Known about the structure:
Blueprint: H1 4-28, E1 52-56, H2 62-69, E2 79-85, H3 89-100, E3 109-114, H4 124-143, E4 151-154, H5 160-172, E5 179-183, H6 194-199, E6 205-208, H7 211-216, E7 220-222
Parallel strand pairs: 1-2, 1-4, 2-3, 4-5, 5-6, 6-7
Amino acid sequence: MVSESQLAIKAVVLLIPFILIVLRLVVVLPSVKLRKSIGNDNFIAPNVHGSTIMIMLGSGGHTGEMIRLLSKVKLENFNRIWVSSSGDSSSLIKAKEYEENLKTNQLSSIYLTLYRARKVGESIPSSIISTIKSFISTFNSLIQLKELPSLVLLNGPGTCVPLAYILFILKFFGLAKTKIVYIESLARVNKLSLSGKLLLPISDRFIVQWEKLALKYERAEFYGILV
């Protein structure tokens, strides 16, 4: 017969991995930390000149909003990774136009196209398959990069969800240090988008553009309309 002490030892051995996972989540999961008072809308740290910033673009107005948000950032001080979804050629064109208008092009810029997570009006079974393909496509694209970004800027296209979660998982395992910054779309006045709800727990900074949302969601930062 197995003694009580042996059972206790087995239970502890089984619990140790679970405890370690929970402790690691406490360390890396932003949602378990108190929101800090930032005091301004400078969502880029001032001491990261020459680091890499990833910018997620998206159809349906997301790219237009992101381009306007970037007016607050001295993008020429960063290596840039522009990301768009498959089938979204217009966003890539706008990214390249933005690059041409930069004052200097000393640092690098590259373009990634990820499999689109979900199309508008797509059925639930089909969207599940698309999302899985998007996770695979995103993972394969990220591991081929020479360097993972120091920061990723997101504002709501569906493909940003696999991107953010893969970066968070890599951060969980100590393979990345990417800060995830999510800026909710201006169109979201009373409630978050689905992307926003999914990314609220894992975003290092979560910025909304309407005070109603800031009052409703504890971790949300509000600085007025940014676009």
